Write a sequence for this structure.
């Protein structure tokens, strides 16, 4: 008889043998998802029998993972800043690094302020939904070029009860937005062509190219965003962008050239440059 505990150990041992760095966690998440149970139940009730259907689904998850598919892609969902977000073919899988951007903004605005926020290149809606969850009086515009991403983001907003405070727009960054915004956030595509060629297949083959390709040197989006956002922000407004680890000085330079002041570069938990912030004074 197949049990929860045996099924989990089967996945774990195969992932360990394949050298996956997060073998135990991946096995727990994928086995629990296949069985439709909480991961803790694998440990609490290891002797519970599993259905043939559950075991077959776990085997399919196992094969996908061994073929290099990230866990979030297999599950079709991912946790970000405490929110479970659905993914789709048109969305980047949100990364923990991007939580640094959310935290950097939250540390610089008042939670009681009725802020008008724009999230340019919203993907799953990760950044703006995380912000709206912590800023109860804020409203947001979430823009993406991808209609698939926008549909997914809208579903995520509905799931978390935030759809009444965010408007989803298909567009080219801020080209269609009106001035007067308080905060603009963006995690634009910032991978250079040289880095794209060398990218881990788990990223290259599963995240959409529109979410990754930052042009020859990775800075194309910031060249557009910095002047565009300076025009759209009110005086006292904040622009916060996620960046690649080697882009801090270049993006700070683009912010300064567009007229931003009090520019800061914030590091992630690994000490790498991750966010550039600037104020329109
Ligand atoms: C790196 S992903 C970030 C997604 C999400 N904000 C996150 O942090 O997980 C960049 C997003 O920008 C969108 N995008 C790319 N070019 C764009 C453009 N010119 N205008 C609007 N969105 C764009 C992509 O479709 C993608 O959803």
């Amino acid at each position: 008889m197949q049990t929860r505990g045996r099924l989990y150990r089967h996945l774990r041992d195969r992932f360990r043998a394949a050298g996956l760095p997060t073998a135990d966690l991946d096995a727990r998440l994928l086995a629990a998802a296949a069985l439709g149970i909480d991961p803790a139940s694998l440990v609490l009730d290891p002797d519970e029998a599993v259905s043939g259907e559950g075991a077959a689904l776990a085997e399919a998850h196992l094969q996908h993972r061994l073929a290099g598919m990230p866990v979030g892609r297999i599950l079709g969902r991912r946790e970000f800043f405490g929110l479970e977000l659905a993914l789709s073919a048109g969305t980047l899988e949100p990364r923990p690094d991007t939580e640094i951007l959310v935290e950097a903004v939250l540390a610089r605005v008042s939670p009681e302020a009725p802020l008008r926020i724009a999230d340019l290149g919203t993907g799953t809606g990760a950044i703006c939904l995380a912000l709206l969850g912590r800023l109860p009086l804020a409203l947001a515009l979430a823009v993406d070029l991808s209609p698939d991403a926008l549909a997914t983001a809208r579903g995520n907003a509905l799931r978390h009860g935030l759809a009444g405070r965010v408007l989803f727009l298909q567009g080219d960054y801020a080209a269609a937005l009106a001035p007067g915004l308080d905060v603009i956030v963006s995690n634009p595509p910032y991978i250079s062509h040289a880095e794209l060629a060398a990218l881990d297949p788990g990223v290259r083959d599963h995240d959409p190219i529109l979410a990754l390709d930052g042009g020859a040197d990775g800075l194309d989006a910031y060249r557009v965003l910095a002047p565009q956002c300076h025009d759209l922000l009110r005086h006292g407004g904040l622009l916060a962008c996620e960046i690649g680890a080697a882009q801090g000085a270049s993006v700070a330079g683009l912010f300064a050239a567009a007229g931003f002041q009090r520019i800061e570069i914030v590091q992630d938990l690994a000490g790498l440059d991750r966010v550039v912030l600037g104020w329109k004074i």
Q: What stands out?
A: The longest helix spans residues 52-66.
